[in-house]
Amino acid sequence: MEVRYAADPVRFPRMTTKEVRDNFLIQSLFKVGEIEMLYSDTDRAIIGSAVPFDSPVILATTDELRAAYFTERRELGILNVGEKGIVEVNNKVYEMKKLDCLYIGKGNEKISFASNYPDNPAAFYLLSYPAHREYPTKLSRKKDAETLNLGDDESSNKRTIYKHIHPDGIKSCQLVMGATIMAKGNVWNTMPPHTHERRMEVYLYFDIGKDNRVFHFCGQPDETKHIVVSDRQAVISPSWSIHSGVGTSAYSFCWGMGGENQSFDDMDHLDIGDLK
Q1: For 94-134, what is each residue's pLDDT tens digit?
Q2: Domains and CATH numbers, the chain
Q3: Do the Cβ atoms of 200 and 238 come closer than 8 Å?
Q4: Residue-wise over 219-229: b if at least 16 C-beta within 10 A, else e?
């Protein structure tokens, strides 16, 4: 498991494009037949993926966790961004379609992933944070998620938000997680942007066409930079950074947060005029 220490806002303005990408962009996810994980020192988040091929893959602990099993002291959110698949938790099977989300609470020792169609596998995105108590494992299907329709065509930001893990949905210790789907012909997300000092956030971008990209904006409002993001790549966003993006076509992204406040609306909003 890669361990990554994020740059602070003092160093950020002096960073080159390569340094920004090396610090905040995760390009190593979704290798077929493997589980990939990255440990970030920002709120101790673990960002990962599981793409089972012709046999199940097992989520094991790592030396970095100093734990008997992965969720001994952690909770885990899983969003399927691929085809149908199965997550097995302590011998209980959860079948997941695309955009279904599974929460696995602290204390579940056995976790594995399998694909229904090995030639077109499931693609499970994983996001984990430390947990102080146990909450039950629960599946939220796309149709069950709390849904918000926001934006409009005139502003090129018409989108649907699916909220899975949050205080009024699946209960968790600190993880908040869901997905945003941009409507066809719409390309802007989270603009005007915001920050939230009480938690960090990770964006996983997916359903980006082969010949398209998303330009993800980050940094403090008066010192922004961008990261060019391809399909199924993730960006780490510390609490001091904005997180917004624009694509060359419509796309989707999974948002996940961890920190001391789970309120979805806890944001420090900014005006367009604040950005530089």
Answers
A1: 999 999 999 999 999 999 999 999 889 999 999 999 999 99
A2: 14-132+143-274 (2.60.120.10)
A3: yes
A4: bbbeebbbbeb
3-state secondary structure the chain: CEEECCCCCCCHHHCCHHHHHHHHEECCCCCCCCEEEEEECCCCCEEEEECCCCCCEECCCCHHHCCCCHHHCEEEEEEECCCCEEEEECCEEEEECCCCEEEECCCCCCEEEEECCCCCCCCEEEEEEECCCCCCCEEECHHHCEEEEECCCCCCCCEEEEEEECCCCECCCCCEEEEEEECCCCCEECCCCEECCCEEEEEEEECCCCCCCEEEEEEECCEEEEEEECCCEEEEECCCCCCEEEECCCCEEEEEEEECCCCCCCCEECCHHHCC
Pair of tokens at residue 230: 């391809």
Based on its alpha-carbon atoms, the radius of gyration of the chain, rounded to whole angstroms, reads 18
Q: Which amino acid appears at position 64 of this protein?
A: E
Quick check: 127 and 175 in contact, CB under 8 A?
Answer: yes
pTM comes to 0.95
Encoded amino acid at 117, one letter: Y
Q: Which of 235, 237, 230, 236 is nearest to 206 (CA)?
A: 230
